[in-house]
Amino acid sequence: MNVDADRRSPPCVLVIFGASGDLTARKLLPALERLAGYGALPAEVALVGVARTPMTDAEFGDLCRRSVSGEGHPRWKDLTAAARYVHGDYDDPATYQRLADVLAECDHRHGTAGNRVHYLATPPRLFGPIAISLGKAGLSVPAGEGFVRAVVEKPFGWDEVSARELYAELSSAFAEEQIFRIDHYLAKETVQNLLALRFANSIFEPIWNRTWVDNVQITVAETLGVGERGGFYETTGAMRDIVQNHVLQVLSLFLMEPPTSFHPEAIRDEKVKLLRAIQPLDEEAEIAANAVRGQYTRGGTREDLMPGYRDEPGVDPLSATETFVAMRLEVQNWRWTGVPVYVRTGKRLPARLTEVAMEFRRPPQLPLFPGQEQGLEPDALIVRVQPDEGLSLRFGAKVPGHAFRVQKASMDFSYESFDEQSPDAYERVILDALIGDPTLFIRADEVGRSWRIVDPVMRYWADDERPIPLYQAATWGPPEAGSLVARDGRRWRHSS
Ligand code: BG6
């Protein structure tokens, strides 16, 4: 893959906090290796790792090279051979003093011009303390025309209040435009394609509203369980892990008003307007009727028997943490009032599938086709975010023959029809942060508004003494999720 000239990093030091950790080894370093291979990281880009594990510069360079398969491009070898490492506690001012010295040396040696991107690949509880320390050490302020940015990844707080506290800590050192909050879903090609689908075409816009759309369904289904992340998941759950961020971000891009331009702020303004139009479920009765949680139990086939959530390592045997959420939301604005938006996510569901679907209203005169309900399922537009990335338009067509029978047919577009490959989400976000394009990052007001939507439900569940509904691994969630949609006379697009 070649990178456009304007998709090349400017001179800069990329500082990775948590450099000896899992995220760095699994995601960041392989993404950097690919970016180096595409020519996106010129010689004026340097790499510095910071972490508590003692290591020399050379050992850190080795760790970088070991994190990728093969030898890598010569530029990757140069980048890692020159990589620097700062070892120390994150709350010790001496760590930041050493970092300042190393950064000055990088400027001198590599021409990095005082520009820095601090990537906080640490546990989230360290985001605030690191930002504050960077501020105190004078490492958050750009020199002259240059830039300093901080990149953080969800969770952005644990609820609305803690998100506000985190915001206060980050903004004690960084201005909002310096803070890049990652949601890796926004970096998925198919999620970005929502913008092209909606705004590079004219055929969809006339039907993108309550007059034509019957309901919207967003599903983020995973087949995996929590694996080794039980300890983390116990305090997180599906609502905080997926709904508060990935689901609401995808939903807002899908349903927002057209932005006035593709300027990052114009798009983010529209997303936050859409989030504000979602009525939080505040009353207990409303929550009980419109939000469903669930937890997986042992299930699968005899050959492939999967453990229940409570049997996973690091999980409380009496845990009430939800591994499944389904909600019925309403967007109260001119375009969408009255159109239910069903969202759903879960671990250990029967398929790995993320899709956004719009079902259209039925034709006014169904009696024209008596007894053909199956073929007359609602028409639908389905954006397949993953796997099998693409788009389908489903509609009824006559089956050839003497009888007049209607059957569902589909027009499909697959991303495979392009020769180009999609970049990995982390390649995309790292390069965007280096370049300074905030389009795919979440703004503070979006974070706050998303917590406002999920917080009341989380509080209600925390106080609810009834046992959490269960579902067997490899099924589509508890029966209550089906009832949520059936009550409206509808069905989930995938449910058996
Ligand atoms: C992460 C969640 O944000 O997204 C994980 O913390 C989840 O629990 C993952 O598995 C899903 O991402 P993807 O890209 O595999 O759909």
From TrEMBL:
List the Pfam families hit by this protein, alphabetically. G6PD_C (PF02781), G6PD_N (PF00479)
Task: Give all residue intervals belonging to the Glucose-6-phosphate dehydrogenase NAD-binding domain.
Answer: 15-193
Please report the name of this protein according to its UniProt entry. Answer: Glucose-6-phosphate 1-dehydrogenase
The family this protein is said to belong to: Belongs to the glucose-6-phosphate dehydrogenase family.
Active site (catalytic residues): H246 (proton acceptor)
Q: Which residues bind substrate?
A: H184, K188, E222, D241, K347
Question: Per the UniProt entry, what species is this protein from, by scientific name?
Answer: Geodermatophilus amargosae
Q: Which Gene3D superfamilies match?
A: Dihydrodipicolinate Reductase, domain 2 (3.30.360.10), NAD(P)-binding Rossmann-like Domain (3.40.50.720)
Residues where NADP(+) binds: R52, K154
Function noted in UniProt: Catalyzes the oxidation of glucose 6-phosphate to 6-phosphogluconolactone.
Highest taxon of source = Bacteria
